Amino acid sequence: MKTDVRCILATTTVLAVVLSGSPAGARLPGFKREAKRIKKALVRIEFDHDDVSKELSRLRAGLADLDARIAAETQELSSADTPGFGPSFDLVAVSFRLNLAREERAGAETRIVELDALEQDLVAQREDQIAELEEVVEERIRSKRGAPALTINGSLVTYSADWEAVAMCESSGDWHIDSQFDGGLQFHPLTWLGFGGAEFGRYAHQASKIEQIAIAERVLAIQGPGAWPNCFESLPFHF
Fold first, then answer.
1. What is the pTM of this model?
2. What is the DSSP string of 82-120?
3. CA 239, CA 228: separation in Å to the nearest integer?
4. Residue 6 located in a structural domain
5. Residue 125 belongs to domain spanning
6. Sign (positive/negative) of CA torsion 129, 43, 197, 16?
7. In a domain, 83, yes or no
8. At 190, which CATH number?
9. What is the DSSP letter of 26?
10. How many domains does the chain have?
């Protein structure tokens, strides 16, 4: 299982460098400041979403256990009317355990409803932040190329770089490699999340080639070819 990317964040300085691509404390251009704000928000949203998903999974698994307890206590309670049942039967204790299990189940169901609503809200927040990020990216593309902005939605028609060549350099063309850096274009996990990659998968290797390229277009527009320091010469456009 891949290590939680939160373990990577030893200090806030590391986080700043990873997210911004600039030394801590350096003054960033306007578009980079805006992109940095959005990337931080996207990473926070994904961490919160992970926590909600884990709690939902735990609660839903717990419902099965509670149902089993309720069934067992109900069966034991009904056995009180069975002829020959021993005098040690504690009707009060069984009733107490049954009511307790029912209360726990009701509480779990209430919490699941709350978490489902929170999960939907986090998904909506992610979509809003990605929309803002795409606006920043498209404006950056316009300002650098003087050309119409790309539509970056996971189904690109025009690419700004030879991403096949970059992937061949970065990962020998393996678009689903799962390592410290992920996917054909070798995304750092925080870069992937910060540029909205979670809309396609938690990690880059879980996304399709086209989806990875969509995120790479965002990274290229904001960070430039230096985001791939070992392979940027494969890129025909220099920002």
1. 0.64
2. STT--TT--HHHHHHHHHHHHHHHHHHHHHHHHHHHHHH
3. 13
4. no
5. 11-234
6. positive
7. yes
8. 1.10.530.10
9. P
10. 1
2 falls within a domain:
no
Q: What's the token pair of residue 142?
A: 């316009």
Interval 178-234: pLDDT, tens: 988 999 999 999 999 999 998 899 899 999 999 999 999 889 888 888 888 888 765
In a domain, 46, yes or no: yes
Residue that has been written with the tokens 């009707």 in this structure: 91
Torsion angle, CA of 221/157/210/170, rounded to 10 degrees? -50
Query: Tokens 């990873």 — which residue?
Result: 18
> Quick one: CA torsion of 32, 38, 40, 42, rounded to 10 degrees?
-140
Q: Residue 58 corresponds to which tokens in the numbers above?
A: 């735990």
- CA dist., res. 116 & res. 122, Å (int): 10
Residue type, 61: A
Tokens for 188, please give them.
Answer: 């750092």
